[in-house]
Fold each of these.
Amino acid sequence: MATEIDAIRTAILDEAPGDELGALPLPESFRAAVVRADEQEMFAGVPSDEKDPRKSTHVDDIAIPELAPDEAYVAVMASAINFNTVWTSIFEPLPTFGFLKRLGKESVWGKRHDQPFHIMGSDASGVVLRVGSAVRNWKPGDRVTVHCNHVDDQDPTAHDDSMLAANQRIWGFETNYGGLAEIALVKANQLMPKPAHLTWEEAAVNALTNSTSYRMIVSPNGAQMTQGQAVLIWGASGGIGAYACQYVLNGGGTPVGIVSSPERAALLHEMGVEHVIDRKAEGFRFWSDEHTQDPSEWRRLGKAIRDRIGRDPDIVFEHPGRQTMGASVFVCKRGGMVITCAATSGFMIEYDNRYLWMMLKTIKGCHFANYREAWEANRAICEGKVFPTLSRTFSLDETGEAAYEVHHNLHEGKLGILVLAPDEGLGVTDPEMRERLLPQITLFRRHDA
Ligand code: NDP
């Protein structure tokens, strides 16, 4: 039996006009990848590595929430796995239900988010289905991507830089009704145009990681790299690292990428990253035991960088955290900057402060991107200056499997999730541009094959 969702999907695939799409009835419920509140203790006592997103992630039918005046429903054609999907699905460092409870106390509209389920997902590409009465810039039928900065702009702290807003949240992580669902609930100020030369799945994987790397490398709110600077990039073929490499290359900088296999090194070379360090092959052990770092290993990394580029990096793009921060602070150039947005291997950080103050270095914290930064990062994609790093796609039912792969560092670049898109390869409206950029657009897919 055909459902309202089938009719919406068919209308999108047939490129029905926006007013037709906007007139279609909405379903009472939709399918979504969720974790459940009554399972948030399921991994208690289990080591982090063994917490399995395939056990905690379910695809459930969820009732459609009411639409606030400043919001839109988006029919999600494709979404993506981010590391925050991993954190949510393994309930680390905390179960996300606490975030939803807090949001629930803020307002009548916030209350909708406090549910016994959490729809995950902080990325999406799709089509606007309905807009609230206060939405001015978007209408049903608009093809969009969604960035994940969820901010109530009626709060004065949300102005200047909305990442500094007291009520700033990451959509689909600190809010409910994220992108891993047939219908997503988003604020209108999360919407951005879909790049015309990309398929739904290629368009879905960029916003979170591309915008984060843009802010970290390019923006005055981040390291604001200038031409000729050298940037050491950890995890250079990963989610944020592969976009960081592109911004460094685009800005006339010299990236030094660190990866953990010859295949990843080859991928970076093909991207145009000349200087690559394989951390596994070179056997770096920055910690001699759980409590003790080995500064001689920091020096060995510093030498490996100087051997390649003849100098120390002006900027270190840092996110592995505890495992690498001591080395990052050490190898950074005198007066340089370690810019950090994460701590995947542990957030209680240790470094030798003498190398920071005596050498006048800076450690700067960075987190996602404000709307303007996300918009500029999206424009770089739309104009073909930055390409998507999609390596593989999964179905919505396979969300847990895809999160498992990211949890265990088994993926390259980004993993996409097909939601309403029945197949890969759909949604392109500028085939000429696509043809011209095909080698870059498909680089990560070819390497993964
Ligand atoms: P990915 O897993 O896609 O990539 C991370 C890369 O880091 C891996 O490819 C791996 O590369 C490298 N890596 C992993 N562990 C270590 C380690 N112990 N030492 C050195 N390198 C390591 O994740 P993302 O790039 O998407 O995200 C990275 C982190 O950034 C996550 O913690 C995520 O939550 C966070 N993040 C934060 C954002 C923010 O706004 N604050 C936004 C986006 C992400 P290799 O093995 O090849 O060296």
Amino acid sequence: MTAELISGTDIRKEILAELKAEVEDMKAKTGKVPGLVTILVGSSPASISYVTLKVKTAISLGFHEIQDDQPDDISEADLLALIDKYNNDPDIHGILIQLPLPKHIDDKKVLNAINPDKDVDGFHPVNVGRLMIGGDEVLYPPCTPAGIQELIVRSGTETSGAEVVVVGRSNIVGKPIAIMMAQKGKGANSTVTIVHTRTKDLASHCKRADILIVAAGVPDLVKPEWIKPGSTVIDVGVNRVGMNEKTGKAILKGDVDFEAAKKICGKITPVPGGVGPMTITMLMKNTVRSAWKHIEGK
Ligand code: NAD
């Protein structure tokens, strides 16, 4: 038997269509649309390509979008002043700073200067704290974990009482998704184990997982014999393992041996086309949420 594929590409389309309709509804009811600013410092090609994708998606949804490009040598004080300007701009509901920043600027100081109510990335310590409390306290869940949860829910995977094993404990994926799956509520209520580089027997934990979420950044780390038959496998890893000579594009591989795993598990995300397309989608969802919050004054 071959596992059902959980397509992030298809689910992204579904969510973007829902968001587009919501933006039209917002415009009709309030005369306003979500406002998003993306601040790019310098000209790293990878950063430009990420920012371009975010800007294009925002525009396609009808957002008021500002791409604010700043030179490499902008001072920390000027960048902080720019953030302050957008913090106080009523037409802006989401502020994104593309990382990495140049060495002379303190990332943490800059990210912490964003008003938590406009921190649609969900990285501000206030939003991390709110995520930990859960329920109505959560303003903006971080985007990759939110995308993972959405894939789990929309693929019809039962989470209540499920054994979830998360491989990886980073601040942007492992820790937040573990917290989110353990919370009380829809798409959660799971029993969660976090495993990492110091875990004694990775295989024995993975074998118990009804839902296995792997975010290690190690190609083919998870072997087929570690997978519980019928389980749901979410492969977050994106590893460049070579170059396609014809297209000149990088060959990407996940953290799970996909070809072997799909013969054992019940559902699985591919790499690429699984978790990858979800991150920007959830960023847009957070921005729409922020716009409602600001427009309705909640
Ligand atoms: P990270 O390097 O910050 O964290 C990796 C975690 O995996 C660490 O906590 C480490 O303890 C654990 N780990 C590493 N090797 C391990 C091993 N052999 N056994 C057990 N645990 C191990 O990485 P990250 O930022 O969390 O990203 C993880 C992967 O997910 C990367 O491949 C990254 O490219 C990918 N990623 C994808 C998206 C997306 O698709 N949108 C977003 C974020 C990260």
